[in-house]
């Protein structure tokens, strides 16, 4: 287990009760060489519960719809210090890691070690703002049964999926049925924080919970899988977030009549039990976060941000320009912004998935500015810093000396999001060419 120098406050809550089974779009487990008479993970045999699914052949280099929607068991959320954590369990399945660049050697598929076990996932958020918090690989998961530790601690991966948004998790092999105890050590949040989040999440926390792994669980998560018509496999688009019951809108804020069940670049996200506030986060009718609601990591729509929205130099086919199918929003906050240094302006860049507005974390970006063909500021570029803000959520930003109308701004993506992907995202956000913007004329 990792050692941490910071003080740790430990909160323990044990629960074996599940709040429900949810459908979840995820990765596919397939074995083209499996004989029809061999064990294919049918839960009726009480053994390996890893269903076999077809995969999309030659998927696009973009976000696409998978062949099925998985199911999972959601346990009671746990509060620990400043964190709230929701554990979720499904069957083991593959996911994809990004290990640096965008080449084939930088994308690694991770297959389960065995069929018995769970795919364990967690959504972590700040209950005061409803903002989902990014976690790096220094978190640890320790599994025990009857007081005996099972295997070595796991270091879960930061992940994105179409229905869960940003979360972290890993496959956990389990040999025996029974009750298992899970200790999750949460490190301090490494991301630069601003606004009401500044100076928070600096302590480590540990949460503990229990779950039952048995035949009934396997039958439940495997039997709850929803299969889609083959004509939908690999279509450009995404499945809706796991918190259903929302009105879906297109880029212009109108209802989505395509039946995709998602909200596009700038679509607003309304809930029938409340509404989204100006930040795009769920609140109840009194403006307070609903404690029974696990938030989805949807960023605010583009029109919720202040400042001067930068115009893409090349005419885009979508409301927001795309790079590697990531939708890129960029705005220039005026001098005196709380995020800027002194009298500088603040460039805010918000990369997000093109349909559900999931933040794309752990990227490396540079910005260069030219005026009349000559560089302004550092000719080698200015690094954009990943920042978590109470008003603008996850974004990348930098202070820049006062810019002028007509200035050309180039955003270069030096590395794609270093987060694991569930199926439907594994071919997107990899090769990301630079984007050019222009500071518009004063209105």
From TrEMBL:
Gene3D superfamilies: Periplasmic metal-binding protein Tp34-type. Residues 29-62, 237-322 are annotated as: Disordered. Residues 237-293 have a biased composition (Basic and acidic residues). Residues 29-41 have a biased composition (Acidic residues). Residues 304-438 form the DUF7350 domain. This is DUF7350 domain-containing protein. It comes from Natronorubrum sulfidifaciens JCM 14089.
């Amino acid at each position: 287990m990792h050692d941490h120098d910071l003080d740790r406050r430990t909160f323990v809550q044990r629960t074996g009760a599940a709040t429900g089974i949810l459908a979840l779009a995820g990765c596919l487990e397939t074995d083209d060489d499996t004989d029809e008479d061999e064990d294919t993970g049918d839960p009726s045999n009480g053994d390996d519960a890893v269903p076999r699914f077809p995969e999309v052949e030659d998927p696009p280099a973009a976000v696409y719809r998978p062949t099925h929607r998985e199911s999972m068991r959601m346990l009671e959320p746990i509060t620990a210090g400043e964190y709230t954590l929701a554990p979720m369990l499904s069957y083991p399945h593959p996911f994809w890691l990004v290990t640096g660049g965008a080449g084939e050697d930088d994308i690694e598929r991770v297959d389960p070690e065995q069929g018995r076990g769970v795919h364990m996932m967690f959504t972590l958020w700040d209950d005061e703002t409803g903002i989902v918090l990014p976690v790096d690989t220094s978190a640890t998961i320790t599994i025990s049964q009857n007081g005996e530790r099972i295997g070595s601690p796991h270091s879960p991966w930061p992940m994105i999926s179409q229905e869960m948004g940003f979360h972290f998790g890993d496959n956990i092999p389990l040999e025996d049925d029974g009750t298992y105890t899970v200790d999750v050590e949460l490190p301090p949040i490494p991301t630069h924080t601003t606004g009401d989040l500044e100076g928070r999440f600096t302590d480590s926390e540990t949460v503990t919970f229990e779950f039952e792994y048995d035949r009934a669980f396997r039958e439940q998560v495997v039997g709850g899988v929803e299969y889609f018509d083959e004509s939908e496999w690999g279509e450009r688009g995404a499945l809706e977030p796991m918190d259903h019951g929302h009105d879906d809108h297109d880029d212009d804020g109108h209802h989505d009549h395509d039946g995709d069940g998602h909200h596009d670049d700038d679509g607003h996200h309304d809930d029938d039990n409340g509404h989204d506030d100006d930040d795009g986060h769920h609140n109840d009718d009194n403006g307070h976060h609903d404690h029974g609601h696990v938030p989805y990591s949807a960023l605010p729509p583009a029109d919720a941000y202040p400042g001067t929205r930068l115009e893409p130099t090349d005419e885009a086919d979508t409301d927001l320009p795309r790079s590697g199918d990531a939708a890129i929003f960029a705005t220039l906050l005026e001098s005196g912004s709380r995020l800027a240094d002194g009298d500088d302006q603040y460039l805010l860049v918000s990369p997000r998935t093109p349909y559900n507005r999931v933040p794309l974390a752990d990227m490396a970006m540079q910005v260069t500015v030219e005026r009349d063909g000559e560089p302004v500021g550092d000719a080698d570029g200015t690094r954009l810093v990943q920042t978590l803000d109470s008003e603008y959520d996850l974004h990348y930003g930098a202070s820049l000396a006062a810019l002028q109308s007509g200035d050309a701004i180039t955003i270069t993506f030096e590395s794609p999001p270093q987060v694991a992907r569930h199926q439907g995202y594994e071919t997107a956000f990899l090769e990301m060419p630079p984007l050019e913007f222009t500071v518009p004329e004063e209105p």
